[in-house]
Amino acid sequence: MNFRHILRKVDAGGACALGLMWAVAASAHVFPRTQVPAAGASVSPPSEVRINFDGPLEPAFSSLTVTDASGKQVNVAKAAVDAQHQETMAVALPPLQSGHYTVHWVAVASDGHRTHGDYGFDIK
Known about the structure:
Layout: H1 3-27, E1 32-36, E2 42-43, E3 48-53, E4 63-67, E5 80-81, E6 88-92, E7 99-108, E8 114-123
Parallel strand pairs: 2-8
Antiparallel strand pairs: 1-3, 3-6, 4-7, 5-6, 7-8
């Protein structure tokens, strides 16, 4: 076996290892797939906010809160991850007035990786 042949094997093995590491890293975080109400939507007062993520959540560390235009939290109930569909988290809302609301979410994947974000919606 010559040196050039060894280098080709190392390069192929390194490329495979790098690809595998990237695939694991990419799948380690969860992000929203769908949001109800949707980001930027103008809706009638919803009874809850529900976000479906692209992977299972760790219920003990994931959260979802809703604030009004002044930054005051409006949900009294604590968000919960659906036991049957662990990629879904929802929080019940009290009756809300017209205005702008912001959803703040923290999603911890079942492997412990954390993502977070927020989006807004309006009530007519």
